[in-house]
Every structure is written in C-alpha cells, then in structure tokens.
C-alpha cells in the first residue's frame, strides 16, 4: 500500500515537472501574448500539413561523429502541391467601376441622385448629379405652364359662356325690401383679408409662371425683373395674412360647413342645376366643398410655400422640387376654383355680393338659397322675442 | 467658334480641392459659395473616386429654360452665363440644374436666396470685359484674356480638362486607350447628351 502511494507521488512529481518546464519556456514569460494564441495553431507539429520547413536536401543525415557519405547530394523534390497561382491584383488606379453615363441613365430612370461626400460645409453639395432636374424642367416649362394656362383660361371662358348663355341667377320672388343679417363684421373682414391676399398671391404667382412669356416681351427685361422682384416680395409677405385668415375661417366657419343630411339631399336634387332651389343650410353643399377644398389646398400651398421660402429647411434639391410641384399644382387648381367662386359670388347670383359687403342679404334671396338656415334664424328670433316660459305682463 | 466644355477624369482626380480654392481665390467668391466642388463617391470604400464638379455649361441648359425672368444667355463659345441684374433669386435654376451649380448668397428675406451665383467658365458676365464692375459681380474674365478657366489650368494631375469639347474628349480617349481603363466622363450624358465610353 505504501509502495503504491510512493509510486503515485513520484508519477505526480514527474508530470508536474514536465508542466513546470512547459510553463517556464526560456525568454517568454508564461501567459504573455506570444505564448497565447487566439487562433488554433496550424503547423507540422500540430497536425497541419504543408507548413513544415522545406528540407534543403533529401540526403540521409549521418549519425553524429560519422563521416559524410560520399554519394552526391540530392536536392529534395518539391512536394506536388496543387496550389492555384496567386494572380497579382490590378493596380489600385485601375478602378474601373460603373460607367458614368450608365450611372446617370440609371438614376434618371429611377428619379434618383448620384450622391457622394464633400469636404465643404454645404453638405447638400454632395449631390453630384441629379438627372431628375431635367424632368422638373419639363414640369415647369410644359406641364405647369400649358396645363395651368388651359385650366385658368378655360375656367374663365367657361364662366363667360355661362354668363352669356344663362345669365345671372335672379331672385325669383323679386327683392322683398327686407334684409336678414348673414355675415358678422369679423367674418367679412376675415373673408376680404383672405380674398385680397389670395388675389395678389395668385397674380404674382401667375406672373412667375407665365410672365416671362407674356409680360417680359411687352415691358422689357429690366422692368419685368423689377416687377417680378416686388411681386415675389409681395408673394412672400402676403402669405401671412392669407394663412392667418385661413385659420380664422376655420375657426368661424368650420361648424357651419360641417356636412349634414341636407347637403346629401341638395346634391341629389341636382345642386346648382336643380329646378328651383333645393333646401340648404347656411352654406349649401357646393359652398361647403369650396370651403374645405380652399382650406385644405391653402394649407398645402402654405406649407410647401414656406418650405420654398426658407430653402435652408429643405436641404435637399429633390424635396424642394416636390414642394414646388405641390405648390404649383395646388395653386393652379385653387385659382380656377376661386374664379368660379368669384363669378358665383358677384355677377353670377343676384343678391349674393351684398351679404359679404354689407353683411345683410335680401330676405327672399336667403329664403330661396338657404331655406333651412332662414327657418333656423326665424325660429331663433321668435324664441328670443317670445321665450316659451315668458308670461304676459301683469299675470302675477 | 469652339464649344467649350469641362471634363473631369475621375481616374486622375486626387481630391486635392485645389480647383475649389483656385476658383474662390480667382473670383473673390463670398463665404458660403462654392462655384466648384469636389465630390467623392464611395468615400473610403473600394471603387472610391472623386469628381470635380461645377456648372457644365449644358447644351440646351435647363436653368435657362426654367428661369422666370429669362436672365440666362449663351455666348459664342456656347457658355451658359447669366445677368445678375435680372436675377430675382427664385431658386428655379437650382431645382432644374442636374449638377447643383447655382449658388445663393442667402441675403434675402426669410433666409432667402439673393442673386444667384455660378461658375462663369472664367468668362465674366454681360458687362464690359475686365472692368471692375464685372469683377465685382462675376469675378475675373480669363476667357477675354485668352486664357482657360483657372481650375483646369492649375489642376495638378490634369484630371480636370477645360477647352473645346472635341479636343478634351480626344485627350480623354487617348488616355483611356493608353492606360486601359476609364469610367467615362461624369455629367457628359446629362449635360451634353454625349457618352464618352471607350
């Protein structure tokens, strides 16, 4: 038993001695990066192949102390290793890459930009080529100009034809001589603030689009530049009363313009084309549609316009092009719609304009065009004059 | 007359920005305006290349087509120049330009644009050649002195070429044939509807 223990102790001593010798490799301290390896080592001693030193000679080495063999020294044949030849890479300057013309064509097709890095502060200058610019050009010189001209001139011609064909809508019962309050001074002031700024915004905007073709040949380059310069200043400054007025309209008129069942009936009856006058509230369905279209379009035009006004906000040519697209398209349609509104509100309908100028309309006009509203006003008036819980004087 | 063009050999451009600096110095261009800039594509990646870009003086220039006051004019050498006295700074030329060449000094209302400024091909403007008033508005007029644009003249690797379109295209093609590679002339398809693939 003791002998077995002694043997085991000796064995342990021998093993630890070997381990100690391995740890204390000469020169390199144990645990140093040279000793440790992140990757499993591969070599002749570790089971790898083809990593051994190429022997310089295939000759048998003589035993120590023995004379050299007289046989001629033979060079060891290189091992037959099927190594694919490593081809030298092309010079760094031979970068090749896609052809410039192909890249430009591809970006033009997918409405993209060729973007890179610049070392100047203006990072938006990193767009090297934006072939879409040529498409924006066709929008401005062809689509907006020709379609816009057709829209505005066509609407004007249509309204003129309507006026000469059918004439204005008369008050069928004739003027009653009595009037009913229709718009408060705040509503009228707000309306005319929006109207004035819209007309000037529209005219200066049309000048930006068509002036170079229409006005410039007439007045000359210098005068036209002066006009357009002041025009764009007016366009920028008058956007503020326009937007404030839109917000005011939304505040005072949104409730009266909320769609109701009466509007459905009004449209089903034929709206403006109906025989007689279908019943309508304070505003009929067409007026409500106009209201919501102008508010929505005005907001879209205002947002895009302010973004164009402060070009540093949209630090990107593509988003500026989109903003201009929305702004121009919206403005053209709004101008056409407002032309119709101006016609109907002035020469197209007898008795309509005085509502917005004096605040009162003829009673018969109100009864024909806005019968439901008149009923409401009358019942309200009766309630105020004679409340249901009113008691005759002296009844106590 | 010649048909003056720019050509940047992107296999030679080393992004030293000397053309940018030379242009700013030659024309006393104000802060924030770079008539010429160097754009590096695939920066730091394989296939990186740099291109010096400015107004390419396009054939059928989009800026001139969209200008609402028609302030652009073409010269006998087919350069696209503009009259700053007519410009209203609306920014339309910037939307239309494929190369981002129009620059604005940002002096107007609401951080607006001010009169547009762009590469003149060192050819000044509509004023009398080489007068102080022309220099104030457009910078120096080297073309009137019989010289080519400074950016191309001093390019250290001769990557940027300026001159008659046929001549510089010939130089580029010769280079490509000699060295065996080339990725085409950036902007030429968009600006001149011409491809320089060899």
Structure, explained:
The complex is a heterodimer of chains A (396) and B (198). Chain A is built from 13 helices and four strands. Chain A is an all-alpha fold and 396 residues long. Chain A has a domain at 178-290 and 344-383: Up-down Bundle (Fumarate Reductase Cytochrome B subunit), CATH 1.20.950. Chain A has a two-stranded antiparallel sheet. A two-stranded antiparallel ribbon of chain A has the order 3-4. Chain A is elongated. Mean pLDDT of chain A is 82; it is low at 17-25. Chain B is α+β, with helices and mostly antiparallel strands. Chain B has one domain (9-157): Alpha-Beta Plaits. A two-stranded antiparallel ribbon of chain B has the order 1-6. A two-stranded antiparallel sheet of chain B has the order 2-3. A two-stranded antiparallel sheet of chain B has the order 4-5. Chain B: It comes from Dankookia rubra. Chain B: GO terms for molecular function: 4 iron, 4 sulfur cluster binding; metal ion binding. Chain B: It holds the Pfam family Fer4_6. Chain B: Residues 4-34, 78-107 form the 4Fe-4S ferredoxin-type domain.
Query: Sheet bearing the most strands of chain A, described?
Result: 2 strands, antiparallel
CATH architecture of the domain at 178-290 and 344-383 in chain A: Up-down Bundle
Write the CATH fold name of the domain at 178-290 and 344-383 in chain A. Answer: Fumarate Reductase Cytochrome B subunit
Any idea what the CATH architecture of chain B is?
Answer: 2-Layer Sandwich
Question: What is Rg of chain B?
Answer: 17 Å
Outline type of chain A? elongated
Helix share, percent of chain A: 55-70%
Radius of gyration over C-alpha positions of chain A, nearest whole angstrom: 45 Å
Number of domains of chain B: 1
Chain pair with largest interface: A-B, 62 and 64 residues
Residue-averaged pLDDT of chain A: 82
Biggest sheet: strand arrangement of chain A: 1-2
Category by helix and strand content of chain B: alpha+beta
Largest sheet of chain B: 2 strands, antiparallel
List unreliable stretches of 5+ residues of chain A: 17-25
Specify the number of helices of chain A: 13
Number of helical elements of chain B: 7
